Amino acid sequence: MCCYLLLLYTLSDCKASFGSGAGSSRGGSSRGKGGSSRGKGGGGHWGHDSARHVVKSDSLKQKTTFVPWGKGKGDKGKGKGKGKEPRSSVKPPVVRVDADAIGRHCEVKNAHGSSIQAMCMTEQGIYTASQDKSMKRWKPAKGASGCYELTAELTIPLPDSCHSLLFSNGWLFCGLWDGQVKAFSQDGAEATMKGHNRRVTTLAVHQGVLMSGGADREVRLWQMDPATKTFNCTHTIEESMPGPINKIHPLGGHLFVGGLHGLAMLDLSTLKVTKLLPPTKAVSDMLEFQGHIIVAYTEGGLRIFDAEGTLKSEMKMLEAGPILKIAGLDSGPRVLCGHIRGQVTTITLPSFEFKTEFQALAGQKVDSLLCAGHDGIFLVGSQDGSLQLWQRLEGGLPS
């Protein structure tokens, strides 16, 4: 059939070991409109805006709680996490995990007024998006204690609660509860994409095409008009979708679509579902690693498939129970799994073996995970709006 139309203004994600795939797509209906202003790119390792056109306020200066790694209780990481029923009790949160050389730098209480649903990294800093209808940008910096602090630099009001974020080639895309996708460009342009009629849960970019998946059981493909910087919906895919969609990820010539009723493989040359991969259980998240896709199921198990959908490995239900989010940590490397009762499980790669599990949050859901892509740094976003910054050190934690 038809292959992807090439855009003059290409959107692309650059990742290292944990990356995005390759493939193709086609053309259709619907448009978003351009808009007003945002800050432009900055300097330094983390970057900052030289001119900001969004709200900045002293109210953003939340207090950050620091607990040096040498104090507090360590987690010994007991339990293998395979084939066991999840325990019902929740342990007190820890600040260091000696079993996997992981330590917490800081925690920002009330970083948002509600659940932090999504996070992403840009040259300007760390963006978090919440059900409180706002997106914030955070600047990490080392304090006097040697631990990183997180300072909120700005907030961007959103028209509705945000459930997915994606940064690609100068554009920041926000998937909203009401089905809109709001887009902000580093050059100050804005765009709004309307098409989904329920929350947009997942976003991806592949060969210059923006893809969105939602609770309305649809995958939509969007292409940008470089002259007007508006996005046109070229295709809407509904047939054979695995229920309300939680995650999409392109790999090879396919788009993997994870939903309430399992995992589907969409052929990107025909835009037709060619396979439904067992089991027919809810998929919570996906992660690409070395040409394979790691799939996390809500019940607490994980599977690895190759680009053709062949099952390569399987991990039964983790001891910490239901999984909400997974992320790829460069240090190790590791798969991090965020759980419904505030635990984080670490799994070694490429051996795909359980390493340890620790209590990051005091019984709150781990609603988002973000790995910085360097120095073993990762962030945990909580159901109650708190934000934590952690680090895994290859040589072990300081005593």
TrEMBL record:
Keyword terms of this UniProt record: Repeat, Signal, WD repeat
Pfam families: WD40
Coiled-coil segments: none
Biased composition regions of type Basic and acidic residues, renumbered to the chain: 46-61, 72-88
Signal peptide: 1-16
Protein name: Guanine nucleotide-binding protein subunit beta-like protein
Region (Disordered): 20-92
SMART domains tied to this protein: WD40
A Gene Ontology term for the protein's cellular component: transferase complex
PROSITE patterns cross-referenced by the UniProt entry: WD_REPEATS_2 (PS50082), WD_REPEATS_REGION (PS50294)
ATP-binding keyword on record: no
Classification via Gene3D superfamilies: YVTN repeat-like/Quinoprotein amine dehydrogenase (2.130.10.10)
